[in-house]
Amino acid sequence: MKKIFFLFIFNFYSISTFAHIGHCNNLKQIEIEILRNGEIIGYNYYFFKNEQDQTIITNQFKFEVKILGKTAFEAEGYGEETHISDKLISYKSKTIKNKKNKFVNLNYNPKTNKYDIEGSSYVGEASLENVVGNWWSHKILQANSQISPISGSIKEQVVTFIGKEKINLYGIDYETERFKLSSKNNQLPEDERLNFDIWIDKKTSMILKVSYSYLGEWEYRLKFFE
Question: What is the pTM of this model?
Answer without folding.
Answer: 0.85
